[in-house]
Each structure stands twice: as C-alpha cells, then as structure tokens.
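Entry:
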Amino acid sequence: MTYQPFFEFTDQRKGRWVVSCDHAANTVPAFVNGGDLGIAASDMNRHIAYDIGACGLAQALGAQLDSPVICSNFSRLVIDPNRGADDPTLLMKLYDGTIIPANRNADAADLERRMQACYHPYHAGLGALMQRHERPVLLSIHSFTPQLRGRPKRPWEIGVLYAHDTRLAAPLMQLLAQEGDLTVGDNEPYAGHLPGDAVDRHALASGHLNVLIELRNDLIETEAQQLFWAKRLAPLLEKALAKTNL
C-alpha cells in the first residue's frame, strides 16, 4: 500500500476556513528506520510525537464550519511540517527529555527523503486548499501538554497564537475572555510564529487572515471532548471573523 503523507476532509464544503492540523499523527513511515524511531511506545504516544486530540478536533471544527480540513499523517519526530525548511528543529534529536535514536545520526540524504515524502506533499496539499477560495482563512489546530518534564503546570485551557497579524486573533481572544470560565493564553504556551512555519508560509506571506489555536490535550482526548470544543469554538470563530469585516 502506497504511503499517504496527509488526509483531506473536504466533502464539497463551501466555508472560507481552511482547518489544518500539522501534528495530527504519530505515524512513522516504513522508509524511516523500518517504521521505528527507536523510542518506547509510551513516548510515541506522548505529546512529543504528535498533538494529542488535535486531529479529531480539527475534523470536528471543519464539519461545524463547513470548511475543508487537512491533517498530516506523519509524526512531528519524523519531520516537523510546522517549521521552515532551514529550521534546525525540523528534525528533532532530543525532545522533552527523550533522545530520538533514529534522528541522532540522520544525514542529509535521510532529511531529504523525509522532506520529499512527507514535508513537501503536506505543504502542497495545504497550499492547494488555500487556493480554493479567493479569501481563505487559515485555522491551525494544535494541542499542548499540561506540563513539560521538570516545568510548572500550565494554567491555560486554550492558547491563541499569532505573529504580527492580529486581525483575527484579537477579536477571538476578546470573545474567549467573555466566556468567563477560561484561562486564555495570549501567545502562550508558545510565542507567535517561526519564520517559514505553516502559518507564515500559507497565510502571512499572502496576507490571508489566520489564527493558531492550542488546546490543552487532556481536554480533547476523547471524541466527545473534541466535539464539545468544536461546538463551543465554531460560533466564536465565526463571530471573530465577522468582527474583522474582511
């Protein structure tokens, strides 16, 4: 069976949103060290390998927003599609205390093989979805762990990430604050964007509206939780978009 680096969920949807999930899967393709990165199964099921719950949330949001969804089908430890092509963290050798043996001695040929089979096809797919609409809005869905090893617990349920473009992020954060029961991270638990990352490449570079949402992964572990958050967030996203008048 031919390896498929991403999955699309479109169903002739007409909405402006393009919902992306860069870290949707913990899949290791067979061409990468025989499908094994050399770390324990427990590590492959941690946040270091993929964004827990994000894939299901992205699909549920796409359905709620009547908009297409694209989800990667490779672990971020295979190669990280949310990094620029020249970013030194594109291929992680150590992540949250875990050494990645299959990456420690990866050479330029290994990196190029992963780029051609995973990274470039995913970005081509996302780019094609963005071109389907004259005024696309990129909604990038991620999740974060409640606590990194040796670090304090993170207090946020949800984070809204943005770079210099706050046209959509600002009204969304205002609406989330009005909910009254959420601790919202303003560019937390991560700050802004990196040059050449997915939002930079597919939205910022072309002036398209965009926002990146991070949900704490213990809140979206199950299908029921994912649907709950999708139903909660979708109306707020639509209201925030309306407030931009764009």
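The mean pLDDT is 95.
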